[in-house]
Amino acid sequence: MTNETPGAPTPYAPARKGTVAVYRHATLFDGTGRPPTASTSIVVDGPTIRAVADDAEIASRLPADAQVFDLDGRFVIPGLIDTHQHLATPPDRPAAEAVLRRLVHSGVTAIRDMADDLRQVGDLARATLVGEIPGPDIRYAALMAGPGFFDDPRTHQVSQGEIPGTVPWMQAVTGETDLPLAVALARGTHAAAIKVYADLDHATVAAITSEAHRQGIPVWAHATVFPATPRQVVAAGVDSVSHVTLLAFDDADGELSSYKHKPPVDHARFAAGDDPGIEELFALMRRHGTVLDATAAMWASDAMAGSGPRDAARAAANTELAACLTAQAHRAGVDICTGTDYETDAADPFPALYDELAFLVHRCGIPPEHVLRSATLIGARSAGAEDVMGSVEAGKLANFAVLENDPLQNIDHLRTITLTVKRGRRFERDAYTPGSGRTADSHGVEETR
User: Which of 61, 78, 88, 215 gets the highest tally of CB atoms within 10 A of its CB?
Assistant: First the structure.
């Protein structure tokens, strides 16, 4: 081609390879499970980390042209990962860009988008990757569900101009579906995973999972798929399950007939945090390596408050259920990642992910160091990206956040963030203005009722 143009500007592009920056005098929590280390230097070469070592060792072999940033003992953590976002239900580009802008200026360097209108999400993923707009990396899922789910109004919002259930990013699946073709169509959207959602039996969930894995793509599922139970979903081999409160439908008294007709949950059964049936389920998850995307704080959010005493009572009961089950999962050794499924108001300076991490510490009793590992390395594992992100180590992407105060002493110290580095590109917190845009309406309000 002789008329090539440079395309749109990319002011937030990853740093170029060969551009070396050194962040020295850091107190580093690297996300690997090692304790924090003081007097640490991080050498960044373009978008990746070249070395992590003691200040003195790095200083002795510092490149002459390296740009040096002195952190004066500040705390460095790996870039945070929100493992349950919805950016385009319905599509609203300004709202989505506002969410992404706030996330990256709050230390969030990657998210999982859990099925939306992928025509827009795919472009947002491209735009944040190449640097047209500020934002975290986006790894997104294409959805599969039973035909009965596709009269849900959200399926029309994300399939505008097409027929819900017949598009590659949101497919209705039956026993007659050509699964190799269906998975290939989903992969053609550049999705990082298949999301298994609702109205599918155990055999179909297992068949989708087997075919997806055969084609090299993970499966992210609701913890109960109705009629498939939590135990059946985990046994099918899915890679992660979302919404801890849905685990309460394991061994439920009523029939799990469909997503729209859920039996009541006996909240008292789980209040002591020692239910033996759930303990067996957690043991199964541990054996399979299934990650729990708890979305534990969602029911305590303004998004779920509702409009009257009945809604408030339901939200309070589910908040307590989420706290009890998530704490029990942690004690059982289940890997937990940190998803939200809602966002705070546009005027709030910080994203919902901060509230999720605080909930895990304060309401679930999980130590801050474990919560931070959930928000980084385990989050990367849930996204299928542990090889390139989730910890501050040589060879991984240069994704980390700088904090004034120690988050291991108080998880709320995340709010002292001064800098995000994403793929080597610096995002100064001072450059972010809260309320510069609007956040999208909460997707989660309807998702788990």
Answer: 78
Residue 20 in tokens = 């070396």
Identify whether the C-beta of residue 19 lies closer than 8 Å to the C-beta of residue 45.
yes
Give the phi and the psi of residue 244 in degrees, each rounded to 5. -60, -30
Co-location of 24 and 104 in the same domain:
no
CB 259 within 8 A of CB 208: no
Residues 33 and 122 reside in one and the same domain: no
At residue 84's C-alpha, the angle toward residues 199 and 142, to 5°, is 50
Per-residue pLDDT of the chain (449 residues; tens, 9 = 90+): 566 788 899 999 999 999 999 999 999 999 999 999 999 999 999 999 999 999 999 999 888 889 999 999 999 999 999 999 999 999 999 999 999 999 999 999 999 999 999 999 999 999 999 999 999 999 999 999 999 999 999 999 999 999 999 999 999 999 999 999 999 999 999 999 999 999 999 999 999 999 999 999 999 999 999 999 999 999 999 999 999 999 999 988 778 988 888 999 999 999 999 999 999 999 999 999 999 999 999 999 988 887 788 889 999 999 999 999 999 999 999 999 999 999 999 999 999 999 999 999 999 999 999 999 999 999 999 999 999 999 999 999 999 999 999 999 999 999 999 999 999 999 999 999 987 555 554 444 445 54
Do both 175 and 45 map to the same domain?
A: no
- Say whether both 183 and 232 belong to one domain: yes
Tell me whether the omega of the peptide bond preceding residue 35 falls within 30 degrees of 0, making it cis: no
CA distance 325 to 42: 38
Same domain, 307 and 363: yes
CATH number for the domain harbouring residue 315: 3.20.20.140
The whole-angstrom separation of Cα 330 and Cα 341 is: 20
Same domain, 65 and 135: no
Q: Are the C-beta atoms of 289 and 335 separated by less than 8 Å?
A: yes
Quote the number of domains for the chain. Answer: 2
| Residue 90 falls inside a structural domain | yes
- The answer as to whether 313 is a domain residue is yes
How many angstroms separate the CA atoms of 173 and 175, rounded?
A: 7
- Find tokens 């109004």 and name the residue: 153
Residues spanned by the domain of 420: 20-77+393-431
Burial (CB < 10 A; 0-12, 13-18, 19+), residue 303, is buried
> Tell me, what DSSP letter sits at residue 406?
-
